[in-house]
Amino acid sequence: MDNDTITMAHGAGGQQTAELIGRVFKEHFDNPDFTADDAAVLTLSTNRIAMTTDGFIVSPWKYPGGNVGKLSICGTVNDLSCMGARPKYLTCAFQIEEGFSIHDLESIAEAMEKTAEEAGVHLVAGDTKVAGKGQVDGVFITTAGVGEMTDGVSLSGRNAKPGDAIIVTGDVGRHGCAILLARDEYGIEADVTSDCAPLWGTVESMLHVTKDIHVIRDATRGGVGTVLYEIAAESGVGITLDADRIPVDPAVKGVCGMLGLEPLYLACEGRLVVFAPKEKAEELVETLRKGKYSKNAAIIGEVTAQNAGRVLMNTTVGTQTILPRPGGELLPRIC
Question: What is the pTM of this model?
Answer without folding.
Answer: 0.93
